[in-house]
Amino acid sequence: MKGGIQGMKISQVSLVLIGLVCLTVLALAWTKTTFLTSFIPTQSRVLQLDLVTSDISGAPSFAVTETGPKEILEEKNNSVQTGIKQVESLSSSGTEVAVERGNIENVAITDKGAVNYVEALKDSKNPASVPDKLPGGKSKSKQAEIALENSLTVDSSAVKEQTRNLSANTGKKGHRQGEICLLRLFCSAFPAQKNLILGTSVFNISSIGAESLPTVLESTGSEDSGGKNKSKQAGTTPEKSLAVEPSIKREQTQNSSATSGEKDCNYAKGKWVFDDNWPLYSGYGCKQWLSPMWACRLTQRTDFEYERLRWQPRDCKMEHFTRRKFLKRMRHKTLAFVGDSLGRQQFQSLMCMVTGGEERPEVQDIGYQYGLVKARGAVRPDGWAYRFPRFNATILYYWSASLCDLEPINASNPQTDVAMHLDRPPAFLRRFLHGFDVLVLNTGHHWNRGKLNANRWVMYVGGVPNTNRKIAEIGGAKNLTVHSIVKWVDSQLPLYPHLQAFLRTMSPRHFFNGDWNTGGTCDNTTPLSGGKEVVQDKSSDPVTASAVTGTGVKLLDITALSQLRDEAHISRYSIRATPGMQDCLHWCLPGLPDTWNEILFAQISSTTKS
């Protein structure tokens, strides 16, 4: 057939050629077309988000591009623009965001310039200090990072230092809206990933959702209506999406205190007030946790006005204790009391407060996990440990009246003397300290010659019997021990940054006209007959206060406020009263040790929030 190729007409051949040319042009223009690029099949495991353009205000625009592993490893940026989304009030920078495909968890921005800018937006005290353009223009992108954290991490000191050196004209509303738009972009572009990482900050997008971003950003902001720095700290409970890394928590707390100029609350300074909402539990009902000898409601005592007194700090508000708040704050944590019988009273008080003074069969006795079991022939075990399974919170007590390591000199002889190592912490602490989150230490009333002789305790220093006469005196021995235990605990704090350690000051005695074994009494039943207020700034226990000075161990100062409460002792009331003897050392429960725990809770809470 003429005019054709193998039977085809000339017109048909022309149409085929035109079609081939069109396909060629379309193929060459494929990557230049935004709509068509969305149909490109996946060829790598990493998406990159580049800041490639900027609008009139200097705000960067984002383009989602795709590169292969080779380009990422060589730190090249050969990706092709596929979709430009304008973000308001941000500046341009060469920034990469890497997202791992499949089980996508994080988006990380690693470019230093963009990180400085975004963090400046988030923490700037003065909106005018944030530049409308990043210094240096578009910088070379570093290899994208895939991080595993699921919570927000903010290096506040670094951000503040950066923002001090910035200057610009961007308004408060503009940079806040820009940050909101940035996070909303990620929420919509990468709905499956968990976190957006901006340098030192990680935004948990999967938890907060795009609609909640303005609220979350406000909670991490640093401006109030007066223009002052007002950091809203992140919570620690699982239902909140923002948290603080333990490794920088102490530094953040110090920086925050230094910036604000605020001093820690002196909970020991204040006054006693009557409150009809007190006590926090029933002395009749807390039989599961409270020793009968300390439950004054079960004795012949008939006056209970001492139960209605609440401590009110003078210069600050003490957070109200509730069992639920305490357990939520202690979720997955362990609180340990280590000390003498007054420490045991504080432990039993807290158990009653946390259970509401009621039977709690769900609470688990886990003393065996700490070796706290009653030995054959012993009256009681060396301590107790209980776990609240719903919160995985543990409260325990270990008896160590002197806070020394006690070691039998001749283990094979039941009547042997016991080496009292003044400069060595108890073996229990050395073994279990790593598992504690809150530690409360106390000692005091066993430091007398009668107790040492009755227990056959022999003073040792440096692993050998003590020969120093000054240390041989009771005051010198106690002083050495208190300073030694504090120094050791302080040395362990960097190893266990989750640990908060407290040394409680001495609980006062109120024996009048004699001592515990010479007819001393405490018959007063009128509350606050000797005064109701503590106005001094310094502790009434200078030995304990001086031991913690300059260390990471905190002071739980209860001496002066307890000194006003001579009517709250066991006194002559007991289930089995001993004629001629009164207990003017221990306290009725409910009673004064509940206040010690309220102050402890307040100090734990203030540190946790910081």
UniProtKB/TrEMBL annotation:
<comment type="similarity">
    <text>Belongs to the PC-esterase family. TBL subfamily.</text>
</comment>
<dbReference type="GO" id="GO:0005794">
    <property type="term" value="C:Golgi apparatus"/>
</dbReference>
<dbReference type="GO" id="GO:0016413">
    <property type="term" value="F:O-acetyltransferase activity"/>
</dbReference>
<feature type="domain" description="Trichome birefringence-like C-terminal">
    <location>
        <begin position="320"/>
        <end position="602"/>
    </location>
</feature>
<keyword id="KW-0812">Transmembrane</keyword>
<dbReference type="GO" id="GO:0016020">
    <property type="term" value="C:membrane"/>
</dbReference>
<dbReference type="InterPro" id="IPR026057">
    <property type="entry name" value="TBL_C"/>
</dbReference>
<feature type="region of interest" description="Disordered">
    <location>
        <begin position="217"/>
        <end position="263"/>
    </location>
</feature>
<feature type="domain" description="Trichome birefringence-like N-terminal">
    <location>
        <begin position="264"/>
        <end position="317"/>
    </location>
</feature>
<keyword id="KW-0735">Signal-anchor</keyword>
<dbReference type="InterPro" id="IPR029962">
    <property type="entry name" value="TBL"/>
</dbReference>
<protein>
    <submittedName>
        <fullName>Protein trichome birefringence-like 16</fullName>
    </submittedName>
</protein>
<keyword id="KW-1133">Transmembrane helix</keyword>
<dbReference type="InterPro" id="IPR025846">
    <property type="entry name" value="TBL_N"/>
</dbReference>
<dbReference type="Pfam" id="PF14416">
    <property type="entry name" value="PMR5N"/>
</dbReference>
<keyword id="KW-0472">Membrane</keyword>
<dbReference type="Pfam" id="PF13839">
    <property type="entry name" value="PC-Esterase"/>
</dbReference>
